[in-house]
Design a protein that fits this description.
- The protein starts with 12 loop residues before the first strand and ends in a 14-residue tail after the last helix.
- Helix content is about 45%, strand content about 15%.
- Helix 2 packs parallel to helix 3.
- It folds into 2 domains: about 120 residues, Rossmann fold; about 80 residues, Arc Repressor Mutant, subunit A (Orthogonal Bundle).
- The chain is α/β, with parallel strands linked by helices.
- It is built from 10 helices and 7 strands.
Amino acid sequence: MTQSRTFTEQDPIRVFLLDDHEVVRRGLTDLLDAEPDISVVGDAGTVQHALARGPALRPHVAVLDVRLPDGDGITVCRELRDQMPGLACLMLTSFDDEEALLDAIMAGASGYVLKQIKGSDLVSAVRTVASGQSMLDPATTARLMRSLRADPAETPALPAELAGLSPRERDILTLIGDGLTNREIGKKLYLSEKTVKNHISRLLAKLGVQRRVQAAVLASHLEQPGSGGHPPR
């Protein structure tokens, strides 16, 4: 699980921006640079430019536009995180698109916000993902799970690792998919919050994902016929 980190004026959050509109990049730079604990270290207007510049700047957070003339920010998220696993990517888009949200989750994005967001809320979002937390809350995850279950054709292929989960890990994974917090899962399964956290760490490792929201996407397979999920008790 990602460890929380605190930033200061002396050790600010290093932010990289990707958007094809210069006026948007300038506005975001002015907004974020006005905060004492945030520093914009660079920007790009294209996918190619972002992939060339981003790694050299060693940002803590990348704010990435989803739709770009030469590609998309989700691809940039995946490729930058391959080179910098600790990078937190915050996807910024004009569209409330569930398919893009799913793709962003599976690419390892830490958050997904609309461009209509208030400036103060965007600043908070950058701080949230920089500290190791997710901007994809349980309610958003649960909504996406309902959509996937309604249309299984949109669900990613079942990973072989799912079969290697213990019955307890499958129970926990299903509850993650329902949008429950660690505390709520513990109450439902009569486990301590620490025990739940340990189970989640192990099942994330087994599934080969880093974030619980990615695991939540995979949880949708447990309720589909022929998925190998254990029968209800």
